[in-house]
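Ticket #4471: structure export looks truncated?
Reporter: QA, pipeline team
Priority: medium

Steps to reproduce: submit the single chain below to the structure queue and open the exported record.
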Amino acid sequence: MAEHDDMLRYDCPVVLVGAAPVEIGPALEALPDSWPLIAADGGADALLKIGRRPDLVIGDMDSAGPLPDDLPKLPLAGQDDTDFEKCLARICAPLIVGLGFLEGRLDHTLAAMHALTALSHDRPVMLVGDTDLVLRLRGDIAFKAEPGDRVSVWPLGVQAFHSSTGLKWPLDGLQMAPGRLIGTSNLAAGGTVRINAGPGDGYAVIMPREAAQSLIDAALGGA
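Actual output as written to the record:
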């Protein structure tokens, strides 16, 4: 997914909200109010319903209801990419946390995973659903986890791993790819999980949504 010249650049994480019919209020309340709040098209309705006003609405505006005239909007035409992809192609931030993109509909969830796979940059993107979260990564990661926490590691293309610590089943020397080898339902041993990734297209760490803060901290540079 190519980035555009008209990039929206932020020096702090951005919260991006989609229109999947899932509960976003609790996850949103756990995030800092100071982070910019952007809606992907119909995500504006989801925010307005819970009394939150997005700083900006991006998309082709085909699913959002009537919006306040003074609400900043960035209309983008085109049916070859989703509103989520339109947002990802134009937002440059140290981390994007997406709410309302997982678990509402299977085809929408698969489209969101496709968008993560298509990213050309190395910046982390996290999607938080009702049950699980997905953190898209390139490169290494280290994060705190409780013993027995589910830690699935999914390749987003062809991805090699040099080593890992803190997982029941190490990733040492593995090369993963969809349709060949995946790392579903691994378990944390407790303490710090470290993944030393080799060359590849990127991967996703999938965990219960309760792990969101630990992975946010890790994605922003701390374990």
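Status: closed, not a bug. The export was complete when the record was re-opened. Leaving a note from the reviewer for reference: Residues 9-130 form a domain with the Rossmann fold fold (CATH 3.40.50.10240).
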